[in-house]
Amino acid sequence: MGPHPAVAQVRLAVRRALRGLEPGDLVLAACSGGADSLALAAALAFEAPALGLRGGGVTVDHGLQPGSGRQADAVLGQLGRLGLDPVQAIRVSVAGPGQGSAPYPGPEAAARTARYAALDQAADRAGAAAIMLGHTRDDQAETVLLGLARGSGARSLAGMAPRSGRYLRPLLQLSRAQAAAACAAEGLDPWQDPQNADQAFARVRVRTRILPLMEELLGPGIAESLARTAEQLRADADALDSLAAQEALRLSAGGWLPAEPLAGLPDAIRTRVLRAAALAAGCPAGALSARHVSELDALVTSWRGQRWVDLPGEIRCQRRCGRLLFTAGA
């Protein structure tokens, strides 16, 4: 007999994500000890050797809960027993309100920023070609709803990509329930993170209250529909980003943009060019909001002698002689 259907599904998803890597490459599974990432780590341990790859693991200790160090040690033990090597735990410090020059993004975003920095550090130290993340279809649905609530635009509604640089998300087509079933079938004991039940977090409220209510009122399959919408929007957003990059290359020169040619671009392209210019000038991506981009757009399309627009990261944009100039030290 073959493996349990859920185990087979997770392994197949991981196998497909590993295509294109070179023999001998090291792939790290980012594992919190929860069902999603533990099922992912087990699948990587099984699939990597068959493809001539090396599978390792990393866990991040955010230090936000009592006993977090013991939990990180427990995850390391699980990763080692699965046969992953090397394995490592990284302790991070999550920024709080008032730390740093950028506006505080909230505890979830601050923890995410610290986590990704730690994962990059782990990959660099180990010489890993890729890092696998255990995000599922349910996580994708939650991300889309959060983006919709924040009015974050098409790129946010496009959700998480299956591949972002060296980050791979093989489980985006699978449900959280499938990952849990895979763990049960393999005799793995996932950790139940108490923060996943903390209603103080917006994502938890979406997961435990909003999505179930939508299922009740609108019928089953909401998560699948939201994930499918994200996939479609991602293709559109990628195309628009590509067109905007071409226009930015054509128009930009010496740190400024010509206002009149910008005004002639479609809104979706122009705002992307402006956002890219602000980021290139030094604005922190997490702090640059739709409101900031709208104010930049007003310098182009609703020019009435406005003095300037102050942006995060002490960047200022002014319109002078028909040009938009981005300067640091505002």
Written account of the structure:
- The protein has two domains: 5-135 and 160-201, HUPs (Rossmann fold); 252-328, 2-Layer Sandwich (Uridine Diphospho-n-acetylenolpyruvylglucosamine Reductase, domain 3), CATH 3.30.465.60.
- It has helices at residues 5-18, 35-50, 68-82, 107-126, 137-150, 154-157, 176-185, 202-218, 222-251, 259-263, 267-281, 290-301, and strands at 26-30, 54-61, 87-91, 130-132, 163-164, 167-168, 256-258, 309-311, 315-320, 323-328.
- It is elongated and about 70 Å long.
- It is built from twelve helices and ten strands.
- Helix content is 52%, strand content 13%.
- Helix 1 packs across helix 7 and helix 9 crosses helix 11 (267-281).
Encode the helix/strand succession as letters: HEHEHEHEHHEEHHHEHHHEEE
Shape: elongated
Task: Give the CATH H-level superfamily of the largest domain.
Answer: HUPs
Question: End-to-end span in angstroms?
Answer: 67 Å
Radius of gyration: 22 Å
Q: Determine the mean pLDDT.
A: 90
Low-confidence stretches: none
- Widest sheet, order of strands: 3-2-1-4-6-5
| Portion in strands | 5-15%
Biggest beta sheet attributes:
6 strands, mixed
Beta strand count: 10
Q: Helix amount, in percent?
A: 40-55%
State the CATH architecture of the largest domain.
Answer: 3-Layer(aba) Sandwich
| Number of structural domains | 2
Keywords:
330 residues, alpha/beta, Rossmann fold, Uridine Diphospho-n-acetylenolpyruvylglucosamine Reductase, domain 3, 2 domains, six-stranded mixed sheet, 12 helices, 10 strands, 52% helix
